[in-house]
Amino acid sequence: MTRLKSAILITLLGLLVAQSAFAEGDGCSLNAGTVNKKAELHQDSIQKYADKYGVSSDMVKAVIAVESCYNTQAVSPKGAQGLMQLIPATAERFGVANTFDSNQNIHGGTRYLSWLMDRYDGDLYRAIAAYNAGEGAVDKYKGIPPYLETQHYVRRVLTVYNRLSGQAVALPVVTASAPITTTGSVKISKPKVLPPSKPGRAGWQLNKAKAPQLYKH
């Protein structure tokens, strides 16, 4: 085997390994037993804020698993921080002073999920997609945006959620050529409706201009 062929083979093997790691949560085990075990340390906060904001605790666990694999010090290349990977602007809007404090991070991330669930009338697909890509992108494409990262993200979160909850929420089909519309998608009714809250990752500057009273100074 020539050196060139060897180099190509090594490169292909590396790509396969990387793809496999991505499919399993970037090397983080996403099976229910492991996720529940990792969540034990934060169970009180998860349950407290899940109950407070009307979000399934299993959904909160699933988002944390996919976002950070329960690493309280996680920082993404885009600056998202902590367990639920809050960017600084989102953390500020939802009252999180220290994104690396697990209790505060779970509080802010769960409140954001709740806000998104309200915004999309309980549509899980859109709410989860917006948590990753911002509600501006979801609104633009009227469904899950045609971004592979976001489409895989929604599938991974729902896969973990199904494993934890025993539900069988259908996974959206991955396609990079067109947005995934969510007509007829699964919706989960929330026990209560929250008062108007602050917007999430996308379009907040415009909303701030329209309703400055919602923002802290």
TrEMBL record:
The molecule here is called Lytic transglycosylase domain-containing protein
Q: Does the keyword Ligase apply?
A: no
Q: Which residues form the signal peptide?
A: 1-23
Please give the InterPro entries that the UniProt record associates with this protein: Lysozyme-like_dom_sf, Transglycosylase_SLT_dom_1
Q: Which domain of life is it from?
A: Bacteria
What the entry lists under Pfam families is as follows: SLT
Which positions fall inside the Transglycosylase SLT domain? 45-150
Keyword check for Signal: yes
- Give the family from UniProt: Belongs to the transglycosylase Slt family.
Q: Which UniProt keywords apply?
A: Signal
Which species does the entry assign this protein to?
A: Candidatus Thiothrix singaporensis
